[in-house]
Hints:
The protein is an alpha+beta fold. β1 and β2 (62-72) form a beta hairpin. The radius of gyration is 24 Å and the shape is globular. The longest helix is centred in the N-terminal third of the chain and has 25 residues, at 2-26. The chain has a two-stranded antiparallel ribbon with strand order 1-2. Helix content is 39%, strand content 11%.
Amino acid sequence: MASNFSLKTLAVLALALFVFCLQATVGEITCEHLDQDTCAFAVSSTGKRCVLEKHVKRSGEEEYTCRTSEIEADKIKNWIETDQCVKACGLDRKSFGISSDSLLESHFTEMLCSPQCYNSCPNVIDLYFNLAAGEGVFLPKLCEAQGANKRRGMTEIRSSGLVAPGPASGVKFLGIAPAMAPC
């Protein structure tokens, strides 16, 4: 009876070990398990982008955490960006979020549109393609303009009508505060 119990226990332990090893082999990425050197520009196994956050403790000590954002990557999952792509695209692993303002910087756009980045780093290009689209800019056109005239690339895109227009009718200031919601 005791040997039967130990055989069952051994079988359960072997099964648990197998499942654990299988999960580790599959290598599913969870943003919350990444460190500050791999978090930025990573994509979880669910396809959500990872974001690096900095918190300052009461003692003044800085603490970095990685969390899952609500932003989904297009057709990319389980991805930790390579150091080669981070360098080729002019990125910084310790960046906290990204901004479309970086697309206005000619040096950054030059690196983003370089063949080393644009043709070899699909995750970065997907991220900035969507960021540019959110601003009404078509990234391939931005890169095309960047190649033609590096100083005027973004200006040409803005003035060419490739940037989404503002509201159809102007916003009027009425000089009154909005009404308060009833309690």
